[in-house]
Design goal:
about 0% strand, 17 helices, mainly alpha
Length: about 400
């Protein structure tokens, strides 16, 4: 397990560091209005691919292991056809309704291009996520690393080229993200093309139907958990001006990058909790909590003194964002230490418990975010974003260690 963790962390963390560099670069060079538009593009991209389809993929990996699915290509191809059809409908609807859709959602007509580009990018992002989930299930971490690193590397090259030629703005930056995703997919063209095979389409439909019946509570849990970040950003995009959207987006981007690294580092626990004995998996989890707690204490101790570093990286125009950054970073502690526990709860067959817990947390999160929006309180929205998820992870850790 720890060898897999090492191999996985190499590609996962390297790719997240490269993405982090590209995001910091864009924060530094784009004007606030362009960065607000880019943030909305990234929001649409991640919301559609992450919120609507990642729950299926997150549920698919542990289910594939617990149920010992043999034909992974057919299984993930079924997910691919489902997402491709649904995304095509969303893109068509956005095209038909036009700028009025942007006004209805965000009260800002200028967000319409970012919505369209975000929907297109989400299609290819979902293709990439399916390939990554397939390789995680097969524990093909070398191929996982290649695919993970190819995308941010291509992105940085394109962004640098645009910047030095004086052509970097919202439009070119958004298209650069799109090109980088397509480039990453092409690295695994053979596996990517196999996801479009029509052979055995009936079996694929049947397998997808079986998957939904077997894991619908788990899918809904991951869906609800995925809404937490998106709810907060939606309220900010809808009820705040472009200046405040940019001020919130900067710390939120740092938070998202750190969260991606955390999620990547937890992937081996899927195998641990679903294939190893309870004693072995709990032993590994205890060690994880011990080491990450030490890291968290050190990070929290230096956080109050990191304002100058934050300003140096982000720019003086974002100095006002530092309190939101602190709130989000403190909220990452329960993610880092306790979030692998959800796979232990899944291994116990307690999908219904996770679903109920996520619904309770969702109500609390929505209420706090709504109040933060109408009171123009970005700090409260930041707190609500991390509190809702942290509540799930801490309670799940207690359940994992409880003897049944």
């Amino acid at each position: 397990m720890w060898k897999n963790l090492r191999d996985l962390l190499f590609g996962g963390i390297t790719s997240k560091i490269l993405l982090g560099i590209s995001n910091i670069f864009l924060i530094k060079v784009l004007i606030k209005s362009d960065f607000a538009l880019l943030s909305n593009f990234l929001y649409i991209q991640s919301m559609v691919s992450g919120l609507l389809f990642t729950p299926f993929l997150l549920a698919a990996v542990p289910v594939a292991k617990l149920k010992k699915i043999q034909n992974h290509n057919r299984f993930f191809s079924a997910l691919n056809w489902f997402q491709m059809g649904f995304l095509s409908l969303l893109l068509f609807a956005a095209w038909v309704f036009g700028p009025s859709l942007s006004v209805s959602l965000f009260k800002k007509e200028e967000f319409y291009p970012s919505i369209l580009l975000g929907l297109v990018a989400s299609i290819f992002m979902t293709f990439q996520n399916i390939l990554l989930s397939q390789q995680q299930t097969l524990e093909a971490y070398r191929r996982f690393n290649i695919l993970s690193i190819a995308r941010p590397f291509a992105l940085i090259l394109v962004l640098l080229g645009l910047h030095f030629t004086g052509n970097l703005n919202f439009w070119s930056a958004s298209l650069s993200f799109l090109v980088s995703i397509i480039s990453a997919i092409m690295v695994e063209f053979v596996a990517f093309s196999s996801l479009f095979s029509l052979k055995g389409i009936g079996l694929r439909i049947n397998q997808f139907s079986w998957f939904w019946k077997s894991a619908w509570m788990l899918i809904l849990f991951f869906f609800i958990r995925g809404t937490y970040d998106h709810i907060g950003f939606f309220f900010v995009s809808r009820f705040f001006n472009m200046e405040n959207i940019a001020n919130y987006s900067v710390p939120f981007r740092y938070y998202s990058m750190a969260d991606l690294i955390i999620v990547t580092s937890h992937i081996p626990f899927i195998s641990s909790f679903t294939t190893e004995s309870r004693l072995e998996s709990l032993g590994r989890y205890k060690k994880w909590i011990k080491y990450t707690s030490i890291i968290s204490v050190f990070a929290l101790a230096i956080l109050p003194f990191s304002k100058e570093i934050f300003v140096a990286i982000s720019g003086e125009q974002y100095e006002i964002s530092f309190p939101y950054f602190c709130i989000l970073m403190v909220g990452l502690v329960p993610f880092l230490c306790f979030s692998p526990a959800i796979y232990g709860v899944i291994a116990k067959g307690m999908g219904k418990f996770l679903l109920i817990l996520s619904l309770i947390s969702l109500v609390v999160h929505f209420g706090l975010s709504w109040y933060g929006a109408i009171s123009q309180n970005l700090a409260l929205i930041s707190f609500s974003t991390v509190f809702s998820r942290g509540l799930i992870y801490i309670i799940s850790a207690f359940v994992v260690f409880r003897k049944l």
